[in-house]
Write a structure and sequence with these properties.
protein biosynthesis; alpha/beta; Isoleucyl-tRNA Synthetase, Domain 1; Gyrase A, domain 2; 14 strands; five-stranded parallel β-sheet; Rossmann fold; four-stranded antiparallel β-sheet; 3 domains; RNA-binding
RNA sequence: GCAUUCGUAGCUCAACUGGAUAGAGCACCUCACUACGGAUGAGGAGGUUUGGGGUUCGAAUCCCUACGAGUGCACCA
């Protein structure tokens, strides 16, 4: 049992001793502890105010009695003080040592090991990325992807079997636009059509180029029509390029061989481009759904809803659902001509996803502009009596803004994902040139490039993940690649620093993972304050991971790992490890350091960030 | 207009979900063991938590309200 849990049990027993009817006392799980504020003496604080009513005692009186009971009865508690309703508890060194030893015995810093049987029963699908195949990935996608990837890892660490899924938006009018532009403008002077090879572009960038070309040419057409006296909205509908794109969509839906062949060719290039971006950023998926294969689904769900009387039909045959009871509106679920709308597809794909993997939970990592859509989707699923409806969750996140304002693809202000990843690696290389001194001398050029990418990605991922997903965030290019302060590279650096000491210790024949001798916890050999602090933090890792899983919040883990790294750096400045004369202290600090390094590695791993041995 | 999310130091973000004198980083100013890895550590300055009410032992957090910002309110996806 970890330190906090043991202490809570002790406090609960103390509380029980104050009750005449012990069964009326709170459960150990209800005992809330908080870290003692710096300006007070103590490690943990228990707030006594809530007990004043049932016990009919003053907060101070309760604190005094609890404190006395704990000092008398719990070997964990060395001393206490009471300030108003706050009982500040000072732990005995033996408590820290036992806590550390428990972590060492666990193999590593206590993120719970998934129990296989439960894991099988806890299946969750996390859908993220969900790109369109008409343009390359950009900064907004990166926030989405890193979030989805990290949440997947965090859920896995909490005992879930996770399926990472991607739903590719590979069809529709916008895809036809880039296809049309390619057909019209893609022919080179030598008569052949442009390819990624001939253009020297990644496939997704090549297609993105044609999507932009379409938009330009289309706008020119609209302007011309308007100049000829047509109203703007009419011109937007009647521009030849738009009509041709619609015609192309119709052909695609009819399975026209030539159109389908073009579509397949262009999409194949885009997928190759995406694959490259995913590879560079360390992202993978277990399952990919293609909208071209799912967009017709959902009509039978609409039929089912009609039969059950959950949906209703208007005179024009369109199908609706009345969600006013849920505080939502009337929502169209099928057009009058029998064709699907966005939500029709999602009704179908949601069923499909659950039947494919028998998940009991499903997450959609999708931007907050679709909050309403998902409220409606989940409400419908509930009305339809889907048993999994309760397990549906929209992990909503805010937009990423630039210092210059919003990203607008039409205005060319989007930050391209590939460019960004290359750039952060370049900046990391520069930082290494400034700071790494001779540490990387024995690295080959390829190893260096890998390291710089690892650090650059560490900076970028950490920068995007440390912020609460719900909030829109500002992307400051200079800060995103910073290696100082509250950043990924700072944490990576602490890891490299510890590993360096570990190597030296091993060369000197010292072990780095033996439990500390409990006998060393004596009054004449007190633990240093920062040692206590680091041990307390280590004990909170598992809870932090659990909370992050509960709230789907990688930012908790990001904050935790930073706090740990920072506390360790303080320890490092305060005490000596290898040059400490007391061998028992050296041993304790080595073991402590090893657990810290491992916890940092694990924690960063949950963010999808690797940590280096040297940097 | 209706719905919804957000508003915390000059800037970017925290605050264990209602607890003490609201914490970090960046930027600015000091300082540090001849550096077990200085991509470091310590300190200073910086706040009426957008304004105003309310709930209670106690509010950045919950409720109401005003203001400001984002997003959604298509038979687009």
């Amino acid at each position: 049992m970890d330190l906090q849990a043991s202490l809570k049990t002790a406090i609960q027993q103390a509380i029980q001793s104050l009750y005449t009817d012990p069964s009326a006392a709170p459960e150990p799980g209800e005992v809330l502890l908080q870290p003692t504020k710096k300006e007070f003496e103590g490690t943990y604080t228990y707030v006594t105010f809530p007990l004043t009513k049932p016990l009919r005692l003053s907060p101070v009186e309760i604190g005094q009695r609890l404190g006395n009971w704990l000092v008398a009865n719990s070997p964990l508690v060395r001393a206490f003080n009471v300030v108003q309703g706050f009982l500040n508890i000072s732990l005995a060194d033996i408590a820290y040592i036992q806590s550390l030893n428990a972590l060492i015995a666990d193999g590593v810093a206590g993120a719970q090991q998934p129990d296989t049987e439960a894991t099988q029963a806890n299946r969750v699908m996390v859908e993220f990325s969900s790109p369109n195949t008409n343009k390359p990935l950009h900064l907004g996608h990166l926030r989405n992807i890193f979030l989805g990837d990290s949440v997947s890892r965090i859920l896995a660490a909490n005992g879930y079997t996770v399926t990472k899924a991607c739903l590719v938006n590979d069809r529709g009018i916008h895809i036809c636009k880039s296809m049309l532009a390619y057909q019209k403008f893609g022919r080179q002077p030598n008569g052949t059509f442009e390819t990624p090879e001939s253009a020297g572009l990644k496939g997704d960038h090549l297609i993105g180029k044609y999507y932009v070309l379409f938009d330009k040419a289309y706008k020119a057409e609209v302007a011309e029509l308007v100049a000829g006296g047509m109203a703007e909205d009419e011109a937007a509908k009647k521009a030849p390029l738009m009509l041709q794109a619609q015609e192309m969509l119709l052909k695609w839906e009819q399975g026209d061989a030539e159109t389908v062949a073009l579509w397949e060719q262009l999409n194949a290039w885009v997928y190759a481009g995406f694959a490259e971006t995913y590879r560079k950023t360390g992202i993978s998926f277990d399952k990919t759904y293609y909208e071209s294969q799912t967009y017709l689904l959902g009509k039978d769900v609409v039929e089912e809803g009609l039969v059950k009387g959950i949906f209703y039909q208007k005179e024009d045959k369109s199908v609706w659902i009345d969600l006013t009871a849920e505080g939502l509106d009337h929502k169209l679920v099928l057009r009058g001509d029998g064709t699907s709308v966005y939500i029709t597809q999602d009704l179908g794909t949601t069923d499909l996803k659950f039947s494919d993997f028998h998940s009991n939970k499903s997450l959609w990592v999708v931007g907050n502009e679709q909050d309403y859509h998902f409220k409606v989707l989940f409400a419908i699923m509930k009305r339809l009596g889907r048993p999994y409806a309760e397990g549906c969750y929209h992990l909503s996140y805010g937009m990423v803004d630039l210092p210059s304002g919003k990203m607008k693809s039409r205005e060319g202000t989007v930050v391209d994902a590939d460019d960004l990843v290359d750039e952060v690696a370049a900046v990391a290389a520069q930082a290494a040139a400034d700071a790494a001194k001779g540490k990387l001398d024995e690295f080959s050029e390829a190893e260096k490039q890998d390291l710089f990418r690892l650090i650059g990605l560490g900076a970028l991922k950490y920068y995007l993940l440390k912020v609460d997903p719900q909030k829109r965030m500002l992307f400051n290019p200079a800060e995103s690649v910073d290696v100082h302060g509250h950043t990924g590279p700072f944490i990576q650096y602490v890891h490299a620093r510890i590993r360096s000491i570990m190597r030296k210790a091993e060369e000197a024949g010292l072990s780095t993972s033996v439990p500390a001798d409990e006998a060393t916890a004596t009054a004449d050999r007190p633990l240093h304050e920062t040692e206590q602090e680091v041990i307390v933090l280590l004990g909170q890792f598992a809870q932090s991971v659990a909370n992050a899983g509960r709230d789907y919040a990688p930012s908790y883990v990001a904050q935790y790992v930073y706090d740990l790294a920072k506390a360790y750096n303080r320890l490092f400045a305060d005490v000596s490890i290898l040059s400490e004369p007391d061998a028992a202290k050296t041993q304790l600090r080595l073991s402590l350091s090893a657990v810290v390094a491992e916890t940092i590695r694990k924690g960063m791993g949950l963010l999808g960030i690797e940590v280096p041995e040297k940097m």
